[in-house]
């Protein structure tokens, strides 16, 4: 399958895209910015091949351009099964389908889709197409190669192995599963599952042994527990008797400790009362001392307030004079700034006027440049139309001519070597004729057909033998083949065919050059933008662009000078903006007012306490309260010594310990009776435990014997099964080896020489093996290396099934590859491009700079021009 032409109209963001005469092999890099429609191209190819024209699915509705009711259209021309196929579909609005197959006819509607599906599936392996058709993000999960039909067939032919059997195992042609193998597998699966775990039937024997063992252990535990209960009853009864004998003496000790504790508590109460008296005396002394300190502070504050007011009033005069001088300077600077602002506005107006004139002159000059560009583009378009008309002559056609003419020459030469020759020598006067024509007296003639020679009155007829007829027929057939070729292509000679091919290739090269020149000339413009600019109303001015720019420069310099003057005035005025002298005066006046108010309040407070106790009386109160505190403190020290000797805390602890010991023994006696009753009830309920223990032990031994017999049979079945599986896996390794070899060959430029790969039983790539034998799971590789390996895997598939020519599609790959890997992958892409069509859609064409012979197509160019 080869894609030769594609045309897309009104499909999502693509208004109109057309690409014709696509070569039958090469790496085609289609590039453009994000959201320009690169991935949409792949979606369009998939939809025209696989989606019915009558579909109303949401995915089809999403392909209609936003805000438009037109029907999306896709046309694709293919070379499929040796025939030229044209498929057209339109969806949603007026749905249509049209199919033309050379030598087969034309179809429409549902018939067209049914016929194409039959023809497509006949000549294209759908699983191979899916594997090589890689949309953006589709290579996240590794391919399972065993699901690609044409690949498995190619591997089977290359390895001599028939294919993948059930469970992922490989079967060789000379070792297919027979009744014996079925019995082996059946016997194995009686005991083990597909994953090697014991089956329910086999596990049941283990479970029965485990249950019997557990039951026997439980019976032994119950018997041992019964013996324990009997021993506990004896132990608890002995302990209860001992506790009852000890209780009377402990109760007497507890009562004596309680009397000592009560006496100590009385002394502690007296000490606590003296503590309260001492604290009260201390509080009264602190109150007296605080009253004295407050009176002394009030007197000092009144004197300090009067002195502060006097100092502040003396400094007020100087601050008022500085504020008046500051007001005069502020008025002068404000007037100077207003004049500077007016001059700056006038300069701004001059700059705007000069800029408008300069923009008009630039527009006028730009229009002249665009008109010149339009003429150059029109000339390129005319040349492209002429070159597109040059008929296509494939290299294969020239090769066919070379082969045909060579065959004619070879056939003629062979015929001349094998055919009989007639040599004649006669006197000059002898009359000779050959096949009715006069002949020279001396000549040599190749006898290819029946030949008549006349010598005077003598006639000689020569008929070629069978060998001559065979070579003669070969000459005739070669000449007929050459004539058919001339009739088909219209070229009389090989030279004409070569000249036509040269003209076509030169036209294609020139077309590529013109396309590049067209893109370079347009730059970031589109033709619509260019035409819109030329259709705009022209602007005319009387000055040149240089004169206008000089005027802008002059006005800008004047503006800069005006701005500098205004900024200088701003700086001078800003220095007085905060009015430091006025602020200092206001602050000083506020501070003076606060000082006067504070002095007044302090004086009033001092006047209000004139009738209160005097300073001497306050000092006397302090002496009295201190003497009272000293008296209470002495009494507290005396009782503290008595409390130390009484030790109430220690006596309380002894009493509590004695009480706890008594309670413990009383509880112990009560609990002993309860425990004895509980143990006796268990002993009565466990009658017959010894008999159960003996019976369950016998059942356990019987179950163990049955398990041993089944285990021996299971081990034998497992050994036989694993031997068969080992041989099957060896066959699988031979089956997968051609793919491993091809993938390793392609991967050498990327991952180094000697690299190998491992496939699992389902032919899924699992490990990469370095030249030194280091195994690494492919999921542990970096994101870039995983992507490179997925690309190489698809190339290896394409290489192994080269007879099934299916294009390879990649959308936005190699984004995580460094410069060295990009160069190595470029070599692999170039090799694959020599075999087949490789389509790459990307927003970064520089990633593929190392792909020799690549064909780059900007998406914008495909949307504007035929190729």
From TrEMBL:
Keyword Coiled coil applies: yes
Domain Rad50/SbcC-type AAA, residue spans: 7-61
UniProt-recorded Gene Ontology molecular function terms: ATP hydrolysis activity
InterPro entries referenced in this protein's UniProt entry, alphabetically: P-loop_NTPase, Rad50/SbcC_AAA
GO biological process: double-strand break repair
UniProt keyword annotation of Methyltransferase present: no
Source organism of this protein record: Corynebacterium matruchotii ATCC 14266
Keywords: Coiled coil
Entry protein name: Rad50/SbcC-type AAA domain-containing protein
Superkingdom of this protein's organism: Bacteria
Coiled coil: 209-236, 271-329, 353-383
